[in-house]
Amino acid sequence: MACRDGHQSDGQRALRRRAIPAMLLPDRTKGIPMRMQDKVAVITGGASGIGRRTAERYVEEGGRVIVADIQDAAGEQACAALGGPERARFIRCDVLREADIAAAVALAVGTWGRLDLMFNNAGRGGVPDPIETMPAEGWDWTMSLLVRSVMLGIKHATGPMRAQGGGAIVNTASIAGLIPGSTAAAYSVAKASVIHLTKCAALELAPLRIRVNCVCPGPIATPIFGRGLNLPSQLDASVAARAAAVLDDFQPLPRGGRPDDIAEGVMYLADERAGFVTGHALTIDGGFAAGMRKSDHDRVWAPLRTAVAGLAESA
Ligand SMILES: NC(=O)c1ccc[n+]([C@@H]2O[C@H](COP(=O)([O-])OP(=O)(O)OC[C@H]3O[C@@H](n4cnc5c(N)ncnc54)[C@H](O)[C@@H]3O)[C@@H](O)[C@H]2O)c1
């Protein structure tokens, strides 16, 4: 039972966690199909969080990945854990720099001869300022990091994919791109732009059999929440754990979002199972963007009900 203010006590939260039906959790016990056998991906932001988990899933299903990130140590460590240079290679790639993105694609093609998935995923929170006091350079930085980088990823993936007769591009947007006000304006506008860019690119590239889709994650327990506070990367695991501890009640489904949830969506969009899907924004958010929860709805409407009920009593 929820407290009057709509929040839950630790005990209530623990009970809720225990009650998660098995069908809501991914089943990793049934054997993993090798859908990405001999396929090659470039994953920007592949050293952490959603990108790293997607790299793991891609390799688990037989593929090879280029992990493209600005975190050298974490990127190298991720690649070693993925099986070393036969399976995964790291390249330092700052997605603010076009030449770095081109080099990541060139490494994939030069090493393994093809590019099947371009996952334009690197990012962090944009500038938090309200529009009234927005520094123009902060706005430009946010758009460069989150939108221009995605455009450049699409641009440089197109040549190799055209040459091999097709491919899949997946971009990371956000529910912030669907719901204005759910984050600061710059990030929200950037992610809305990623959704629109995805559709524009899908139309342009469909004749080349290049499918372009995006994922719109809800809150996912990753180190991203520490990056805006400039916390050192040694605290990444602690940041993700703290985020996980408070996200259980954030959305209608009674558990928090995890990198695995988004990785599965990317794997679907990358694969031939989604061979007729392009220009799609796949929301993966435990129902957050679907609408207001009953508990929130009741809280918002309670004052009105009370006010009108008072009239009924005096009538
Ligand atoms: N975690 C969430 O709640 C959430 C929700 C919606 C969307 N997203 C989006 O998901 C994507 C991945 O975020 P995450 O949650 O996995 O965070 P994360 O911090 O765990 O991973 C992001 C990775 O991107 C890298 N990166 C940052 N700037 C870069 C740059 N200039 N060049 C190259 N790499 C860079 C970081 O080093 C990091 O490894 C981001 O685009 C983010 O906006 C996250």
Secondary-structure element order, N to C: HEHEHEHEHEHEHHHEH
Q: Strand percentage, roughly?
A: 5-15%
Q: In whole angstroms, how far apart are the ends?
A: 34 Å
Q: How can the largest sheet be summarized?
A: 7 strands, parallel
The number of helices is 10
| Bound chemical compounds | nicotinamide-adenine-dinucleotide
Helix content estimate = 40-55%
CATH topology: Rossmann fold
Rg for CA atoms: 21 Å
- Top-tier CATH class: Alpha Beta
Strand order of the largest sheet: 3-2-1-4-5-6-7
For the record, the CATH architecture stands as 3-Layer(aba) Sandwich
Give the quaternary arrangement of the chains: single chain
Which structural class fits the helix and strand makeup? alpha/beta
What overall form do the CA principal axes indicate?
globular
Q: Can you tell me the residue ranges where pLDDT is under 50 for at least 5 consecutive residues? A: 1-26
Mean pLDDT: 91
Instruction: Give the name of the CATH superfamily.
Output: NAD(P)-binding Rossmann-like Domain
Number of domains: 1
Topology summary:
Layout: H1 10-18, E1 40-44, H2 49-60, E2 64-69, H3 72-81, E3 88-92, H4 98-112, E4 117-120, H5 136-164, E5 167-172, H6 185-205, E6 210-217, H7 224-227, H8 236-246, H9 259-270, E7 281-284, H10 294-314
Helix pairs in contact: 2-9, 4-5, 5-6
Bound molecules: nicotinamide-adenine-dinucleotide.
